[in-house]
Automatic annotation (TrEMBL):
SUPFAM superfamilies: Quinoprotein alcohol dehydrogenase-like. InterPro entries: Motility_Chemotaxis_Reg (IPR052918), Quinoprotein_ADH-like_sf (IPR011047). PROSITE patterns: PROKAR_LIPOPROTEIN (PS51257). PANTHER family: CELL SURFACE GLYCOPROTEIN (S-LAYER PROTEIN)-LIKE PROTEIN, PHYTASE-LIKE DOMAIN-CONTAINING PROTEIN. This is Lipoprotein.
């Protein structure tokens, strides 16, 4: 489920990296494959490996087509021409800048003690990057260590195109805080979401949770000054899931909730003994414009938000059957799972909804296309039916990528992977329309540009598709 991306983050690396190691070799290396298509659609693919566990978590593109890759690393990893970086913890964060040809130009590593996991990333037109996540220990983004405040803390950091620090904030107390997703406004301001327990100070703005945990949303100026911060929650447990700026300039925040909290626009539908999915719209000053809730009494739809030209897409896992914003979403087949795609307008009204049958679905990601289409991606096991054509995994988890047109029809679908584990971390679309994917893999994987072979532990990969 998309909303659970941060649940494994609660102590970090197990969510994306929690699979067994396979022993191939222990050397530090960067593998690059650019050969002719052999068993997949990639024009080039890179593996980043060492004697520990590595994973690609996020990928984005600047307006010039330069790629920004963020992930987690352990041990010593060679980042192409940028040289090798040595991790100081079991889960350091790395950020690497790649050219459209896949060559790594620059790379930075962050982490001093404990563990650190990225949970959100946004790339600006010039190749600068904002990263958010969870840190349990000390971390220095270039302006001095951000000291551990206890429990797990939320962080957000802004870096320039060359990796130079613009600003970095840490927020937390003795309880658990999670930094969630980030979105960049046209003026360079950063909108930041997350969840917190107890009391949290976000750049001088103090928030106290009303219940077990609340969602926070903050607006940060390009200088790092926090313009405002607010909490969303009631007496139960609320947690963030996703954040985007839609085509109308609204800040949309998703997550889950308990009970019937009033988030500023009236009480949400009561979940009773269950929980529910929430969707909240705010303006640029933090005022709540509207809110929607869907109790998970007979199923759930755990989704991420993706802002498109003609509406916002909600993409994720459907389990069972749920009445979601006036539409029934029901998983089909014996597995009880499905890939849900819902498109809404700026008022939260559902424009279109689809559920694609799948035997076993992992994390799901998407990115809108120019003209109103959408690219879907994720990892799965067994079969997935995408618009009447099935893909079947070759071994354990495999990757899928599918291209949906503005009318909701799947026009192309691809299965990617080998005979062991592959998991997608993220995907993006370059200015010239190519899809780039990242994640982690075990064993040997050929995405169409030659074999990639993992090291002792799972390795990160990035691939540029035709």
């Amino acid at each position: 489920m998309q909303r659970r991306r941060m649940a494994g983050v609660a102590l970090g690396v197990g969510l994306l990296l929690g699979i067994g190691a396979c022993s191939k070799n222990d050397e530090t290396r960067t593998e690059t494959s650019t050969g002719p298509a052999a068993s997949g659609p990639a024009m080039w693919s890179n593996a980043l490996g060492a004697d520990g566990r590595q994973a690609g978590w996020f990928i984005g593109a600047s307006k010039t087509g330069e790629l920004v890759l963020a992930g987690t690393m352990e041990g010593s990893v060679k980042f192409g021409d940028a040289g090798a970086l040595q991790a100081k913890t079991k889960s350091d964060i790395f950020v690497a800048w790649l050219g459209p040809d896949g060559k790594i130009k620059r790379a930075r590593r962050f982490g001093d003690s404990g563990r650190h996991v990225p949970v959100g990333m946004a790339v600006d037109p010039q190749g600068g990057v904002v990263i958010s996540g969870l840190t349990d220990g000390n971390i220095d983004f270039g302006g001095g260590p951000l000291a551990d405040l206890g429990g797990g803390d939320a962080f957000v950091a802004s870096l320039g195109p060359n990796g130079e620090l613009r600003f970095a904030l840490r927020a937390g107390d003795a309880t658990m805080q999670n930094g969630g997703e980030v979105a960049l406004a046209a003026d360079g301001s950063v909108y930041w979401s997350g969840s917190f327990e107890g009391t949290i100070d976000i750049g001088g703005q103090t928030l106290t949770s009303a219940g077990n945990s609340d969602v926070f949303v903050a607006r940060i100026e390009p200088t790092g000054k926090v313009s405002w911060a607010k909490s969303l929650g009631g007496t139960g447990t609320e947690s963030d899931g996703s954040l985007v700026i839609d085509a109308k300039g609204q800040i949309l925040v998703s997550g889950y909730y308990e009970g019937a909290p009033n988030l500023g626009a009236g009480a949400l539908p009561d979940t009773g003994a269950a929980d529910g999915e929430m969707l909240v719209a705010l303006d640029s000053t933090g005022k709540v414009l509207w809110s929607k809730g869907a109790p998970n009494k007979t199923g759930f739809f755990g989704f991420g938000l993706h802002a498109g030209e003609n509406g916002t897409f909600l993409v994720g896992t459907v389990a069972g059957s749920i009445d979601f914003l006036g539409k029934t979403l029901a998983a089909q087949g014996g597995s009880g799972e499905g890939l849900g795609v819902v498109q809404i307008d700026s008022t939260g009204k559902v424009l279109r909804s689809d559920v694609f049958p799948v035997e076993r679905l992992g994390q799901v990601y998407a990115t809108p296309l120019k003209g109103g289409g959408l690219v879907l991606g994720g990892h799965f096991q067994g079969t997935i039916d995408l618009g009447g054509q099935k893909l079947t995994s070759a071994g354990e988890e495999d990757l899928f990528v599918a291209w949906m047109n503005p009318q909701g029809r799947i026009e192309r679908r691809e299965r990617l992977g080998g005979k062991e584990h592959e998991r997608l971390g993220d995907l993006t679309v370059t200015p010239d329309g190519h899809v780039v994917v990242t994640g982690m893999f075990e064993g040997t994987m050929n995405l169409g540009a030659g074999d990639l072979v993992s090291g002792k532990g799972p390795d990160a990969f990035v691939a540029f598709l035709r």
